[in-house]
Amino acid sequence: MNGVLFLIPRKKAALIRPLNVQVNISRLEVHIITAPSSYDGEVMESTKSPFSDRLMLIHVTLLVSSSLGNYGMGMAASQRRDLATVYARLLVEGSAYGEDGTNLLIENGWMEQPPIAPDRNTLAKGK
Questions:
Q1: Distances (CA, A) of 56 to 15, 40, 65, 110, 116
Q2: How large is the angle between the packed helices 10-30 and 81-107, nearest 10 degrees?
Q3: Smaller CB count within 10 Å for the chain: N or C?
């Protein structure tokens, strides 16, 4: 394993996760709802991954995509303006993070680049 997974900016993930958790937990605490426990205690001391970087990166990008869908559904279903703005911010942050993972998949040849529209200006110039 060449450590590709760790090329996703770990600092970005380290910044995004606590903010997302804090935002969501604070919303629950305002309404005196107990927040679910975290999985931080489940982290093992092993430095060898039992899974390939490719598998882990695919799972991470799928989880990011899933969370973005959940934020979108939460924003659409909520009648509260304050929650909609929180979800919108989390969507923007999560999208940027997910794009980093997708770009890594493409760079390593683990995913093809999605189809993109041709550059009309270049086509018009005949280049």
A1: 20, 18, 14, 12, 26
A2: 160
A3: C
* Spatial distance between the Cα atoms of 79 and 48, rounded to a whole number of angstroms: 46
User: How many Å from the N-terminal Cα to the C-terminal Cα in the chain?
Assistant: 41
Contacting residues for 17 by C-beta, under 8 A, at least 6 apart:
none
Cβ 80 vs Cβ 13: under 8 Å: no
Contact criterion met (CB below 8 Å) for 66 and 95: no
What residue segments make up the domains of the chain, in order of their start?
8-32+51-112
CA 48, 11, 20, 72 torsion: positive or negative? negative
Rounded-to-integer distance, Cα 65 and Cα 71, Å: 10
